[in-house]
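Appendix B. Chain record.
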Amino acid sequence: MNYTLETGLRGCLRHPRTMTLAVLTLALGLASVMTMLTLLSVLSADPLPGISHRLHIAWADSRPAPGSGGRDDTDGTGAAVPPLWKLDDVQAMRRERADIRQVALVTAPLSVTNTDGSNTRTASAVLAVGPMLPVFGVPLRHGRFWTAQEEEARTPVVVIGRELSQRLLGREDGTGAEIRLGRHTFRVIGISERWAPRPRPHFLPGSDPGWQGDGDEIFVPAMATLEAGVEITSTRQCDGGGFDGFRFDEINVGNCRWLVLWAELENAAQRKDYARSLQAFAAQRHASGAFERGAHTSLRPMAGWLRFNRVVPDSVRLNLWLAIGLLVLCLVNVAGLLAARFLRRAGEHGVRRVLGAPRRAIVAACLVEAGLAGLLGGLCALPLTLGGLWLMRQQGEAYAPLARFSPALFAALLALALLTGLLVGLLPALRAARQEPALQVKTL
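Structure tokens predicted for this chain:
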């Protein structure tokens, strides 16, 4: 075995030009695939590990019926319209299935001010109906979440991020302090750690694939926010005659759809049961006249919701397939180069066969050489991969800053490079070992 390994290693030093060409060709193909796989793995990662599999976005069609000659842009599953709810409908559905933790929310930028008005900050806020923070796993550093009783009483309480507390209040633990939202003063009852899942799964406006922003830093009960007359700008759908905006002190909130509803469902049986309840709720609302359209509903898991919104751009998957095509082309060329190297040493192989070496020893020595070529190609692909990821980060896409090198993924791809070298070299090695020793020796 040691002799076979030594023979294969010595073979790598012969004909260095073809060996260098094989290594660089393989490195180019591997680097292109490594770059795109690294980006794809980052973009398709679970935004809320251990939590997202339980969260499902629910929708029931409460839009007005299309007028005469109007265009109905729904396919019956809600695929063509944002899954937005009116506040009254959300509250009715939460009462219908009080045994299920349900959260309705909207995200929007809000301005907050300390009590003396000397410091004002604007940050992304989540306005929630229901226990949003525990359901979505927002990490709490100090204090507590708001209770159902506080939410029902519209108590002005708020949870803010640690960084916002430092900037606004001058200290990390701002629990007990008061800040102003709209016309009211809110008491800070909790400080959260930074919460910025990527992609942002909980609220995706039609124009935002979920890669923008630095995370949410304000978490507040929606009803208390409405009570304070906070002006909010976000995605919405308003019925005819409704004010197209979010000046809640000037319009009827119930006239617009502006919330998304999430349900925490533990297993398939619970999902089926909740889906039936959702359909029955829509049918009952339609029968009562509250919903003008038929009972159209949808229930998507978070993973399906992200796929529906195409948070992983089609261009990334297309570029991955192009990179794989380039790798295949490189492998064909490397196989040809290895075959030329092995057959060029036909005389050497013939002498070893005449001296008693079995064919498997010839194949093994050739595979050592091919495996080393694959390993060197993987190592040479490292700087090329880093360069490719740097170029990705220079692009103007919102997800470009996430194109970062992953050591774990590179280790796996390095093992793949070794395996690729062995597979590519197998056919040339078998071909070299299949030649008759007498014919090989005659070439000396």
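Further analysis of this model is presented in Appendix C.
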